[in-house]
Write a structure and sequence with these properties.
The chain is of the alpha/beta class and 548 residues long. The chain contains eleven helices and 17 strands. Helix 1 (17-26) packs parallel to helix 6 (236-242) and helix 4 crosses helix 11 (527-544). The longest helix is centred in the C-terminal third of the chain and has 21 residues, at 443-463.
């Protein structure tokens, strides 16, 4: 079935796609916004820990589902296995209107200035493809500000002494500290580590006619029951539809971008249910995620692009990154848990780009979101403690309110061999080839993690912990919900997929706007950077399509 033409097809209604759709709609373009998943909110997903986006024991409340999707994962031993979205090796990201922003923890970090100049700062470590971005922090700063005000971020400008310059303060004050954060703040002051409130895409006051956070403990992994969490599903996407220029279509699985010739796209084919639909357009924006975007580009191969769109030099799907998460846990004699969400309230950037020896990059250190009983009982157990039986139950009962966890998303060194590739030997529900994920983590990431967890133990001990222990990232390929890097931006088509405006180098009217364009993923949750880039790219796309 072939439809009447539109100006732009945006594939993916997540953190970036929702913004692009809104901005182009406001510019007067007619947009078809395709989302493979449904529209979900609190009424559909509710508070079910075993079905949340963090604990997928009973499946993924926000998708993707195990019926329609499957992938291959290759381990460090070279063995390949079939994995479903409810399994960790799938590296899933939510499939619904709003994407991961519907259920994310909503940390809203700006990258630091050095994050955009990693090669200039550190050189290129052997075994990595570390490179500078083609844009500087200063060029992205106005769009960070726009994202903070358009999406809605609470925080305290200047509280982080290491943050990059900003032109405007946050639109909302920071969320107040809970009991745990208050204790950690005093300990950080004694250590001289400059702790501060975490910037959050969560309303601390009424904002854009939506209420303030009610401090519900069910935050990360869930939809917000009062819409105080600023997902694109409740911010930019409704505004895009309200223009009358944006047609949001749910349950639409993209099949391929149809090319008119070697340089111009003519349409997008997608399945709605089992019906194949073709949507002609003037331009295509791919915002599917760092694992699904390469898949769509691979599936769109033509005689002019036999290895997939943008893949003339074999960079599509390469440099898959997430974060090398590390952490430390501590047990206390006094109860510090007060049940006030989102719980992750305090952080320090003392060791971001301030590491000793040959260590590079770094990470923030911040307290963890609330771990509900199942996740706590599974993950917050010190070495040697029983993991089942009566003694295990007694441990959980005593320490559930007396434990504190610190975590840090270590900035990864990009690795060419960490990748997403097409796997024609395995097909999904629609008979389309799925993908295979393979690769390894750079050893420097674990070196940085070792240093940081020791600092986290210092922080916990200073706060009064009687016992601490640590966790380090594995050696396997990274990805997960912070996935990035597989269509990196750059000035040289030989070593990148898109240019500084997010347009695929050798194509006239196809853009990639999501985390896959990240040259590195910073030492922070990437959502705000994804959104800032979406605002930047939208201005370029509108200009290219000759909109005043």
């Amino acid at each position: 079935m072939k439809l009447s033409p539109v100006d732009v097809v945006v594939v993916g209604a997540g953190a970036a796609g929702g913004i692009v759709a809104e901005q182009l709609s406001l510019a007067g373009l007619h947009v078809a916004l395709l989302e493979r998943g449904p529209r979900l909110g609190f009424a559909q997903t509710r508070h079910d820990e075993l079905y949340s986006q963090r604990t997928t024991v009973l499946g993924n409340a926000f998708g993707p589902d195990d019926t329609h999707y499957v992938r291959l994962a290759e381990g460090l031993d070279g063995k390949t296995r079939r994995v479903l979205p409810s399994e960790g090796a799938y590296n899933n990201i939510a499939a619904c209107v709003g994407g991961g922003t519907t259920s994310y923890g909503a940390m809203a970090w700006r990258f630091m200035e050095r994050d955009f100049r990693m090669k200039s700062t550190y050189g290129t470590p052997p075994g990595s493809t570390l490179e500078d971005w083609p844009i500087a922090y200063s060029g992205l700063e106005p769009f960070y500000t726009k994202a903070e005000w358009e999406i809605g971020v609470s925080g305290k400008g200047g509280a982080n002494p290491f943050e990059a310059p900003r032109s405007k303060d946050y639109p909302m004050p920071a969320l107040p500290y809970n009991t745990e954060a208050g204790v950690l703040d005093k300990a950080a002051q004694r250590l001289g580590w400059h702790a501060f409130p975490i910037p959050m895409a969560i309303n601390s006051i009424t904002y854009q006619k939506r209420p303030a956070c009610i401090a519900c403990p069910h935050c990360v992994g869930y939809a917000c029951e009062v819409n105080a969490k600023n997902s694109t599903a409740v911010t930019v996407i409704p505004r895009a539809v309200a223009t009358g220029n944006c047609d949001l279509r749910i349950g639409c699985q993209a099949k391929r971008i149809v090319m008119a010739n070697g340089s111009r796209a003519a349409s997008v084919e997608y399945f709605q249910g089992q019906t194949l639909v073709e949507q002609p357009c003037r331009a295509v924006v791919v915002s599917c995620s760092a694992t699904e975007t390469p898949r769509l580009l691979f599936q769109s191969a033509t005689q002019f692009h036999p290895h997939g769109l943008g893949n003339r030099n074999d960079w599509v799907g390469r440099n898959l990154q997430g974060h090398a998460y590390c952490g430390a846990d501590g047990l206390f004699e006094n109860e510090l848990f007060d049940g006030l969400g989102p719980a992750a309230r305090i952080a320090s950037c003392r060791f971001s780009h301030r590491l000793p020896g040959g260590l590079k990059g770094g990470a923030l250190m911040g307290n963890e979101f609330i771990r509900e009983p199942y996740l706590f009982a599974r993950s917050a157990i010190p070495p040697g403690a029983p993991r089942w039986g009566a003694e295990h139950k007694r441990y959980v009962q005593r320490y559930y309110k007396r434990s504190v966890s610190l975590r840090g998303p270590v900035q990864e060194m990009p690795v060419f061999e960490s990748r997403v590739r097409l796997a024609p030997e395995l097909t999904d529900f629609w008979g389309m080839p799925t993908v295979k994920i393979s690769g390894h983590r750079h050893p420097l990431d674990r070196d940085v993690a070792r240093f940081l967890v020791a600092r986290m133990q210092e922080w916990l001990t200073e706060a009064g912990a009687s016992r601490t222990w640590t966790s380090l990232p594995g050696e396997g390929v990274s990805g997960g919900q912070h996935q990035a890097g597989t269509c990196r931006m750059g000035n040289d088509p030989k070593t990148s997929v898109v240019d500084a405006n997010c347009r695929i180098h050798d194509l006239d009217n196809v853009w990639v706007v999501d985390g896959s364009v990240h040259v590195n993923n910073g030492g922070f949750n990437p959502s705000l950077t994804i959104q800032a880039i979406a605002y930047l790219a939208s201005t370029r796309i509108a200009s290219a399509l000759r909109v005043p």
